[in-house]
Specification:
heterodimer; A: mainly alpha; B: mainly alpha; 2 domains; 9 helices
């Protein structure tokens, strides 16, 4: 598919207000708003269902940010603590996912800043010790995704993961990333262009 | 590899079912969240907070102008007063919308826009409706206006930040910029009611400076708050 074809595909998705990807998990998205409203009313079942529905998407988002699985788990905890503290700011008429991913995005940025501070102070060792956790956590699909998205910039990776892996629409991604729909489309287009250039036969890293 | 192949890889990554480690992490989240579950009242609709910020702008500027004396209001013509009021209200509405949106994690892109709009709209308006570009006593007359404007902006900023804390601000730098712009506009509105000096150069530089200085200070304080928050994480 060429660049125009991709743009047309994105336009079609936005015009029809459909999520970027259609899976059974994504098809249940409208129910998230109802679950969130009940979560605000301290409904335990709704809180549990919301956590079960949203957490896998958040984990995929964190894993795709080239974080290790352990960092992703820490970020998941941190993000849910923030969601819990900020749950009164969710307005019932709004979609849940942009609100959740805006919080997740800030958690990632804060974690990045923290790790930068730690990196400055820490003493480097020549070789990292091999741990059993690395064997258990390194699933093939994650490695593939990490490798695939590694060449992208942070913003491009955010957009691609939210659109394709979290299954959000362009409008939702725009809200979550404080940008316009046009900017999201442009970032997605450039990300795809970069990935296709890298993965083209003869240039491949995969 | 084409876009369809990429789509397939990404779709497969998205469909991966949660493994045991994932389930353990989610269970941990569940236990943490459920242990502190109590009802919360959702934030009031956006238009209510937007109106509250606008009311605050009108009340603080009107009260400060009345206390200091409405000397400026008496020397303005009706058309000048209407044009200044409309522009002030329009830019204050943008800044209020920015403040109201910054109360939620999603935020907005209006914060910087409100300061830029103020910095462009008011000099343009004042150059159209006022005359006089002489620089006699330019600084000696200007500094008291700047100080008075900022003195009104400070209590306005404190009240705005009190309202902002009702929400959950993720980026205090942007919220500070929006709050600083709105409180600066409050100071500017007070000066238009109070200051009888209608020289274009005076109004364009010293009155507008209240908004710009206030906005920049708000941004700097917000940035400091962000930095302190990140350091404590």
């Amino acid at each position: 598919m060429d660049a125009d074809g991709y743009s047309a595909k994105m336009r079609m998705r936005e015009d029809s207000k459909m999520p970027a990807r259609s899976t059974p998990e994504i098809a249940s998205s409208p129910g998230l708003e109802a679950l969130m409203r009940r979560y605000q009313q301290a409904d335990e079942e709704a809180a549990r269902a919301l956590i079960q529905a949203v957490s896998p998407r958040l984990l995929r988002y964190f894993c795709a940010q080239t974080f290790t699985r352990r960092f992703a788990d820490d970020l998941l905890q941190d993000t849910w603590m923030r969601i819990h503290k900020a749950r009164h700011t969710y307005r019932p008429v709004e979609p849940v996912l942009p609100w959740v991913f805006a919080i997740a995005r800030h958690a990632v940025l804060d974690n990045y800043r923290k790790s930068r501070r730690v990196e400055i102070r820490e003493v480097q060792v020549d070789e990292l010790p091999h741990t059993a956790y690395q064997d258990a956590g390194a699933k093939k699909s994650e490695i593939d995704l990490d490798t695939l998205l590694a060449p992208l910039t942070r913003n491009q990776r955010d957009v691609v993961v939210m659109l394709k892996i979290a299954g959000m629409s362009i409008e939702e991604v725009a809200r979550a990333t404080r940008s316009s729909a046009g900017s999201v489309k442009q970032k997605a287009h450039r990300a795809y262009q970069k990935l296709r250039d890298i993965l083209a036969p003869g240039k491949g890293t995969a | 590899m084409n876009s369809d192949d990429l789509d397939r890889i990404l779709d497969n990554a998205g469909r991966t079912s949660p493994d045991a480690t994932t389930q353990a992490s989610i269970a941990h989240v569940e236990s943490t969240v459920l242990s502190d579950l109590h009802p919360v009242r959702p934030l009031a609709p956006l238009w209510i907070y937007l109106s509250l910020f606008l009311v605050l702008f009108v009340v603080v500027s009107g009260a400060a102008g009345s206390i200091l004396g409405l000397h400026g209001l008496h020397v303005l013509t009706i058309s000048q007063f209407i044009l200044i009021s409309i522009t002030l209200f329009a830019v204050a509405s943008i800044a209020s919308a920015a403040c109201a949106r910054e109360m939620t994690p999603i935020g907005s892109q209006l914060s910087a826009f409100s300061l830029i709009a103020a910095a462009l709209a008011f000099p343009a308006l004042f150059s159209l409706i006022f005359r006089g570009y002489g620089t006699t006593s330019f600084v000696s007359q200007g500094i008291p206006c700047l100080v008075a404007g900022l003195c009104v902006a400070i209590p306005a900023a404190l009240l705005i930040s009190f309202l902002l804390r009702r929400g959950f601000v993720m980026q205090w730098s942007m919220a500070g910029l929006a709050a600083g712009s709105l409180s600066g506009l409050t100071g500017l509105a007070m000066l238009e009611l109070h200051c009888p000096n209608l020289k274009a150069i005076h109004v364009m530089v010293w009155h507008v400076a209240v908004v710009i200085v206030s906005g920049i200070l708000g941004f700097a304080i917000g940035r400091l708050a962000d930095h302190l928050r990140h350091s404590s994480i």
